[in-house]
Specification:
The complex is a heterodimer of chains A (371) and B (144). Chain A is built from 11 helices and no strands. With 371 residues, chain A is an all-alpha fold. Chain A is globular and about 90 Å long. Chain B has one domain: Nonspecific Lipid-transfer Protein, Chain A, CATH 3.30.1050.10. The termini of chain B are close together. Classes of the chains: A mainly alpha (371), B alpha+beta (144). The interface between A and B is medium-sized, with 38 and 26 residues.
């Protein structure tokens, strides 16, 4: 075998300030040539074998033996040592603060993680940018304003949960894995809407103080669960419907492809949030009041956000097919608003939260305009 | 040749899906079971076809009546006219018109709508939407 050449090899370590003596083990190994091999007996479940399914070896397939048991309370050692491993007594703690399964778990989280990994896409490669054609000015301006809003709000679903990610006990790794895919999804959404705004002669439009306020409240949420209610249930659910609308209003196949792909990603995030709250409310019913309080505030900000022209009008222009059909666009928007509210409340139902009596979102879009 | 929405028609799509291979792998796998319902003008169900996609393959297609235990994530309901318009557009252009896709029609909800017992399960329609649409788009390759 040829020797690997390292440049200036003689100089390596000549100015090092720390020098380690060989450990007792290495000294013994050097002296006797006999390996220790004690680590070989620390495989508590030797002989177990995870079996791949028809889609390969997924997380659910390796959920076997002691590794497969997700504890109700995360390990007290608070380290990144994996479940099912032999953990030395002197591992340093990382100070996780989300140490109960009920605080973060969702029964569909392994499925959603694998699905997310399998369904990743590239905004550079998978969007047929070369099919983008000039649009009438009003449609292009409306699309660019919508893209500005979306690129402004999307990354909160990466920034905010990842603040908590580092605090989640590593025994709930699957939650962290899923949140990592969500962060990647949101990175792509943030980039694709910027690309779209800048790709067809329009450019970025007006940002929104109210949208920023809603982001700040998500960012500042006092607990992971509170954040999940705001972010996944209302925020992402709302954006999911916007993506669906986006596909409907798309003036070109480029836009349709962008919105459809984002829609698929976003529905995974909503799926996690809904299931997480369902798990949580089952285990800690007293949490319902905290979730309601978060949603009281989040709904209020959402209504305020939809009381300014740059939020209301682009959708109406796009739905109507131009400013000339603005009234028709508003009518369509009213129908879709009912759907947003209906699906939001159905997701609350699915999570086990009776939101109807407290919900301040009117089902009639016209009610937003009435005195 | 079987006609939409006969199970054999979907099985033919399944064979095309298998032949396409890489393009569906690129979209990512899907695990979803659903019913395609064709209604008459009065909303009466004329045909209900149960379909299961498992991974990158159409695993099963059968008349719903033959599968009493079938528990779909959602049912896609539309009249024969709406389904046939979509299939005509696919035959002509390889895909439906921008506002006649599964997602667009289901969003507006007057010509096509979803039925489900649980929003979480209904959301699979959105999670796997591209796969569902691409599957139907394969009908453009069926002989007519």
């Amino acid at each position: 075998m040829p020797t690997v050449q390292i440049k200036d090899e003689a100089r390596i370590g000549t100015e090092a300030r720390i020098k380690l003596e060989p450990s007792a083990y290495l000294q013994k190994l050097s002296k006797t040539g006999t390996p220790d091999l004690a680590w070989m007996s620390d495989h508590g479940e030797w002989g177990m074998r995870a079996v791949p399914g028809n889609l390969g070896l997924r997380l659910k397939d390796i959920a076997i033996g002691s590794y497969g048991v997700v504890p109700e309370h995360g390990a007290a050692h608070n380290s990144m040592a994996p479940r099912g491993s032999s953990v030395p007594s002197d591992v340093p703690a990382l100070g996780f603060t989300v140490n109960d399964k009920a605080e973060c778990w969702a029964d569909n989280v392994m499925e959603l993680y694998e699905e997310a990994v399998a369904r990743q896409w590239s905004s550079a490669r998978d969007i047929p940018w070369d099919e983008l054609k000039p649009l009438p000015d009003d449609l292009e301006r409306a699309m660019c304003q919508l893209c500005t809003f979306l690129t402004e709000v999307e990354f909160i679903a990466a920034d905010a949960p990842t603040r908590w990610m580092s605090r989640i006990n590593h025994d709930f790794l699957e939650v962290k894995l899923f949140l990592a895919t969500q962060a990647m999804d949101e990175a792509r959404h943030t980039d694709v809407f910027r690309k779209r705004a800048l790709a067809n002669g329009g450019g970025l439009g007006k940002s929104s103080a109210l949208a920023e306020l809603s982001l700040k409240r998500i960012f500042d949420a006092g607990s992971f669960s509170a954040q999940t209610a705001r972010l996944h249930l209302l925020g992402e659910g709302f954006v999911l419907t916007m993506f669906r609308q986006g596909e409907f209003i798309a003036p070109s196949r480029v836009d349709q492809e962008i919105f459809r792909r984002c829609m698929q990603d976003e529905s995974r995030h909503v799926g996690y949030g809904t299931m997480h709250l369902r798990t949580q409310l089952k285990m800690r019913p007293e949490l319902a009041e905290e979730v309601h309080a978060e949603l009281d505030d989040a709904e209020s900000i959402l209504l305020q956000t939809f009381s300014v022209p740059e939020s209301v009008e682009p959708m109406a222009v796009l739905m109507g097919g131009g400013i000339k059909n603005f009234d028709h666009g508003m009518e369509l928007q009213g129908n879709l608003w009912r759907r947003i509210v209906a699906e939001y409340l159905q997701r609350c139902d699915s999570a086990g939260l009776d939101r109807r009596p407290r919900c301040i979102l009117p089902t009639d879009f016209g009610a937003l305009m009435a005195d | 040749m079987a006609e939409f929405p006969a199970p054999q028609w979907f099985e033919a799509l399944g064979r095309l899906m298998a032949a396409e291979g890489e393009s569906f792998r690129r979209l990512g796998y899907a695990e979803v079971r659903f019913v395609v319902a064709m209604l008459d003008a009065d909303g009466k169900h004329l045909h209900d076809t149960a379909i299961e996609i498992d991974g990158y393959a159409l695993a099963h297609a059968a008349a719903l009546a033959e599968l009493p235990g079938f528990d779909p994530d959602f049912t896609i309901c539309a009249s024969a006219t709406v389904w046939h318009r979509m299939l005509e557009e696919i035959a002509h252009d390889g895909r439906p018109a921008l506002r006649h896709t599964l997602s667009s029609l289901a969003l507006v909800g007057d010509e096509m709508w979803l039925e489900s017992t649980d929003q979480l399960r209904e959301d699979k329609f959105y999670r796997f939407n591209q796969t569902l649409q691409e599957l139907l788009n394969l009908s453009g390759k069926l002989s007519r």
